[in-house]
Amino acid sequence: MTFDLNFYKSHSTFLVAVDCIIFGFHNNEIKLLVHHRAMEPEKGGLSLMGGFVQKDESVEQAASNILSNLTGLENIFMEQVKVYGELHRDPGERVISCAYYALIDINAYDESLLKNHHAFWVSLDKASELIFDHSQMVKDALAILRRKAVLEPIGFNLLSEKFTLTQLQSLYEAIYGKSLDKRNFRKKMQSLNFIEKLDEIDKSCSKKGAYFYKFKEDGNRSSEIVNYEF
After folding, report:
1. Whether 144 and 43 share a structural domain
2. 53 or 3, greater pLDDT
3. pLDDT by residue (tens digit) across 202-217?
4. How open is the CA angle 178-45-41, to the nearest 5 degrees?
5. What's the rounded Cα separation, in Å, for the pair 146 and 136?
6. Residues 143 and 188 reside in one and the same domain
7. Which helix (H) or strand (E) holds 29?
8. Residues 75, 115 within the same domain
């Protein structure tokens, strides 16, 4: 098979990058993993973690490699947000970026790796300070997270394997940015068939304690979910 190389050469070439919106959950708050950009333009600015796609990797592999190198974790929940290709989104060069969002358990990652990459966690309210169009990426990723949280049990990626209903409610309140009625929340969680009660009790916060729960690996969607919003 022969190829018309002139056809390809006659078209413009661009840099392709991946940017990773990495969410974690700590102290009842959704956190965002960022770093200070090490080069111009916007040197020192607050930036998402990312990099250019190399010749020997796919776009998804590039995102996976960034996450693995940063956290030391494998099989991280990751989904594509969208492609960002505005002409002047990066003042340095024409760069088309494919953004992915990822959810990780902050208690499970290798903190030393983050230090090696000069990465650190910030609150979501810092997203407005991000360089380029990174703040829009965070907004788009958060909108996806909020939609999916009522459709499937993606929250288990942000929590430890065992959790109390209070901890679970704190997570959903952090995702949606508002308080939720305790009775209604627990009733809804039970109806969605996402979680199951364990025989273990957490007594770290009170003498009576609270039962631990875990997400079901085969949790089924309830027909109620489709029209339900927190």
Report:
1. yes
2. 53
3. 877 766 789 999 988 7
4. 135
5. 15
6. no
7. strand 29-36
8. yes
Residue 60 structural domain? 14-149
Q: How many CB atoms lie within 10 A of CB 80?
A: 15
pLDDT digit string (tens) for 60-112? 999 999 999 988 888 889 999 999 999 999 999 999 999 999 999 988 888 88
* AA letter at 200: E
The span from the CA of 94 to the CA of 99, in Å, is 16
Length of the chain: 230
Tokens of residue 126, six digits: 């810092």
H or E element that contains 49: strand 46-52
Q: If we measure between CA atoms, which residue out of 97, 211, 196, 111 comes closest to residue 156?
A: 196
Q: Do residue 24 and residue 115 come from a single domain? A: yes
CATH number of the domain within which 205 lies: 1.10.10.10
pTM of the model: 0.89
Tell me whether residue 1 is in a domain: no
Q: Residue 86 belongs to a domain with what CATH number? A: 3.90.79.10
Q: Which residues contact 88 (CB under 8 A, 6 or more apart)?
A: none
- Six-digit token string for 94: 């024409």
Q: How far apart are CA 222 and CA 55, in angstroms?
A: 44
